[in-house]
Amino acid sequence: MFERIVEKISYIKLILGIMLSVLFLDQVSKYLAKYFLQPVHSVPVLGDFFRLTYVENPGIAFGLRIENKLIFTLLSILAIIIIFYYLFAMKDHKVLRIAFAFILGGALGNLIDRFLYGRVVDFLDFQFFDIRIPQFKILFFDFSGYSMDRWPVFNVADIAVTVGMIIILINALFDKQHNTAPSNDTVENS
């Protein structure tokens, strides 16, 4: 019994460690980006492939804008509360709890920016293969087309959220223990 308590405490430390590490790395990196990059705007690291570029993003992911910032902030807070609930409610699923710790650390990092500055500081800028989707119409929908030469600028919090989502997707595909439907024997014996 004592070993289980120690294991639970160690696991809680791991979850909090992931979440607080993401939050710390995110906030420190954004502070450094503000201090060093804001005056010069962009610094090539690996030529044009990877640059450190200072951007203040008033919108959501990839620079998409939402008109009502109060509703967006309230929805962000609600999402964090839900993630926090699942982080501690899913006691038997350690992998998903780790994923939620990454997501929560990233979400808190970006929410802190929104509260402090009204926008999120982004600074990691990568060249991406050109994406070109031509204009087309399907049924009643007109798509005006899309092109992208560079990946949208992002930050450590965005990386953490992405890592958490990838863990969730991989888990959904490969976790047989938690993803199998109950058999007829299990249902009948209940």
**So how many helices?**
6
For the largest beta sheet, what order do the strands appear in spatially?
A: 1-2-3-6
Shape: globular
Unreliable parts: 183-187
Strand content: 15-25%
Protein structure class: alpha+beta
Describe the structure concisely.
By secondary structure, the protein is an alpha+beta fold.
Could you explain the architecture of this structure?
- The protein has 190 residues and is α+β, with helices and mostly antiparallel strands.
- The chain has a domain at 2-38 and 56-122 and 155-178.
- It is built from 6 helices and 6 strands.
- The longest helix is centred in the first third of the chain and has 36 residues, at 2-37.
- It is globular and about 55 Å long.
Describe the SSE topology:
Layout: H1 2-37, E1 42-46, E2 50-57, H2 69-89, H3 94-117, E3 120-133, E4 136-138, E5 141-143, E6 146-150, H4 156-174, H5 176-179, H6 184-189
Helix pairs in contact: 1-3, 2-3, 3-4
Keywords, separated by commas or semicolons:
190 residues, alpha+beta, four-stranded antiparallel sheet, 58% helix
